[in-house]
Design goal:
The chain has strands at residues 3-7, 11-15, 21-25, 29-33, 40-45, 52-57, 64-68, 70-74, 81-84, 90-94, 103-107, 114-117, 121-126, 129-134, 140-145. The chain is mostly beta strands and 152 residues long. The protein has a 4-stranded antiparallel sheet with strand order 4-5-6-7, with no helix packed on it. The chain has a 4-stranded antiparallel sheet with strand order 8-9-10-11, with no helix packed on it. A hairpin with a 6-residue loop joins strand 8 (70-74) and strand 9 (81-84).
Length: 152
């Protein structure tokens, strides 16, 4: 049975084959499925200046706040969830299925437009550039202009 996560006023699971819908939460944005069988969905909740990262089981259940932040995205397993701090300049990680505390992965020199990480490499866009850096050293491996920016 294939499922599709859609965004309306909240988060809804839609069974593609039957069209049946299952409401998960009333308010949620920027959802991200966990990579291990899609058991969890991380999402952002709240106003941009008061954003929080929440998690809910894909099959339904009680949502749980993990931390303040934005742009949730999973690592290679459900044991690591990455997100941006409220300042937008620090990539953090948290183990969402335990009570582990957040940890800083990388402090960035830019305010970030979009980001993805596996905990070792970080790719992000900021001010018209795509940067790929090592974490936690911050060593820039690639610094490329985005199409349509910087004269391209």
């Amino acid at each position: 049975m294939k499922r599709l996560l859609t965004l309306t006023a909240g988060l809804v699971i839609v069974n593609i084959e039957t069209g049946n819908e299952q409401s998960l939460v009333d308010t949620g944005y920027a959802p991200a499925w966990s990579p291990d069988n899609g058991r969890w969905i991380a999402y952002r909740k709240g106003a941009p200046d008061q954003s929080e990262i929440w998690i809910v089981a894909a099959g339904g259940g009680t949502p749980r706040k993990l931390t303040d932040g934005s742009a949730p995205h999973w690592g290679q397993t459900e044991d690591e969830l990455y997100y941006m701090s409220m300042t937008g300049e620090t990539l953090c990680g948290i183990a969402p299925t335990t009570t582990a505390q957040s940890r800083t992965i990388l402090s960035l020199e830019d305010s970030v437009d979009g980001i993805i990480s596996d905990g070792h490499l970080v790719a992000y866009s900021a001010a018209g550039w795509l940067k790929i850096v090592e974490a936690p050293s911050g060593k820039v491996l690639h610094h490329l202009p985005l199409p349509g920016e910087k004269g391209l």
